[in-house]
Amino acid sequence: MSSLTALDRRSFLKQSTGALVALGFAPLARADEKRPVREYRLVAGPAEIAVAPGRVWSTWAYNGQVPGPMIRATQGERIRVVLENQLEEPTTIHWHGVPLPNAMDGLPGMTQDPIAPGETFVYEFDANVPGTYFYHSHVGLQLDRGLLGPLVIDPAGPEGVADREFLLFLDDWLPTNPDDALAAMMAVTTPGMGGGMMGGGMGGGMPGASSATEPPYAGYLANGRMGTALDALAVTRGERVRVRIINGSAATTHRVGLTGHKLTVTHADGQRVAPVDVDTLVIGMGERYDIVVRMENTGAWTLLAGSVDAAVPGIALPVVYGGQQPSASPITVWPVSLAQGKTLSYAGLVPFDGRGGPSSGRVMTLTLSAGSNGAWTINGQAYPNADPLRFTLGERIRFQFRNMSMLRHPMHLHGHFFQLIDRATGRVSGPVKDTVLVEPMMGAVDVEWVADNPGRWLLHCHHAYHMEMGMMREVVVE
Ligand SMILES: [Cu+2]
């Protein structure tokens, strides 16, 4: 047993189940009939979503709403979700980030048969590791139609980090058929050579942008509403508001900031970190950050979000202290105080309990590139014509992500957490996550994880279109 493992065992014994998972002690769900069960019923079907006054989006959704209903349980409970498919094509749900038994991971043709139209499937798993998670369809591009939603597991005991909380579920809004967008993107012979570089002006997926490397988004949604049509959030001086930020976008990396306030980051991908104050944070597709804002600056402010490549935030949510009126003139560009302020970096994050140790994992380099004929590749192979990555149960692995392309890739591993490696020291001392954004043009991120959850999993880019175009591998733990 390595010293790191011993360290982790101690953290486990102290209290942290999150530590357990990262370090090879996944509290894997085993049917325990004594647990209280939280049961939800989700119906996937056509829906008419009012994204703004006078603007209706005819799409697919869970229970007629985008995002889908909040699924929430307390650590130690069991989650049961009965999913009924009223779509005209098969579907599944993936519980993004939640450590659960392989059979519940929602991978069509891999962990389950796709749920046919008219059929029902019951997902059931234990809520063991607290955090902010995300659920979505794992069939084709259904996520970009609106088949997604938030999932939260509350700790068994109080965390005491905030007085109340607010959900900020970020999305990019595609009013047209995502399959058409994919076809247009695949017609581009040299992917990655354009889209990420058109960041000036109104680019980066904002309304009016046209780029065959990104879908023709009509704007961004916050909690299912257009970012320009949001109701104000009323706050009280002196309170601490926790904001659970989930980036459910299919293809948009967001920047988030709040005028007049610092953001105190308390959790990354649901796992607690030592608190760090920033002016803005960048959040990739599939990532989650919990922040706490101390409301100590009376006035009318704006919570801003939008593509990191755009000068225009796109999402402007008024935040007003009691008795104040929202600002009459909406903010149309990132204010200098935020644009030039401190941005969250992975290097600035460490686990709340300080856990860390030397790296001892088997090194596997994963090179992310644009292939030929519209493909996106990992080590030159585009899924499904790609070799599975095979690991022995209990094995410790170091993934070295190397991005040789011009676009960002948020890489997500199913069924496991990983811990980021500080590349300056080589130590496994960064945040525990399940999705990590690898910056373009030689961007490098190293992570270490323990293959402690047997089954057939996936490692993929959470840009839904990159995934469809091949940036995915099967991960076999046996
Ligand atoms: Cu990607």
Counting DSSP E segments of at least 2 residues, the number of strands comes to 32
Small-molecule binders here are: copper (II) ion
CATH architectural category of the largest domain: Sandwich
Helix fraction by DSSP (H/I, runs of at least 4) = under 10%
Number of helices: 5
CATH homologous superfamily identity of the largest domain: Cupredoxins -  blue copper proteins
Decide which structural class fits the backbone: mainly beta
Shape: globular
End-to-end CA span: 20 Å
Using only C-alpha atoms, the radius of gyration works out to 21 Å
* Largest sheet properties: 7 strands, mixed
Q: What's the CATH class of the largest domain, please? A: Mainly Beta
Strand sequence of the main sheet, in spatial order? 11-10-9-13-18-15-16
| CATH fold annotation of the largest domain | Immunoglobulin-like
Q: What proportion of the residues form beta strands (DSSP E)?
A: 35-45%
Q: Domain count, please report it.
A: 3
Average pLDDT number: 89
Low-confidence stretches: 1-25, 191-211
List the topology elements:
Elements: H1 3-14, H2 17-22, E1 37-52, E2 55-62, E3 71-74, E4 78-85, E5 93-96, E6 120-126, E7 131-137, E8 148-154, E9 164-173, H3 178-186, E10 219-222, E11 225-226, E12 233-235, E13 240-247, E14 254-258, E15 263-268, E16 271-278, E17 280-283, E18 288-294, E19 300-307, E20 315-321, H4 336-339, E21 357-358, E22 362-370, E23 376-378, E24 389-391, E25 396-403, E26 409-413, E27 418-422, E28 427-433, E29 435-438, E30 443-450, E31 455-461, H5 464-468, E32 472-477
Parallel strand pairs: 1-4, 3-8, 9-13, 12-20, 22-25, 24-32
Antiparallel strand pairs: 1-2, 4-6, 5-7, 7-8, 9-10, 10-11, 13-18, 14-17, 14-19, 15-16, 15-18, 19-20, 21-28, 22-23, 25-30, 26-29, 26-31, 27-28, 27-30, 31-32
Copper (II) ion is lined by residues 376, 409, 461, 463, 466, 471.
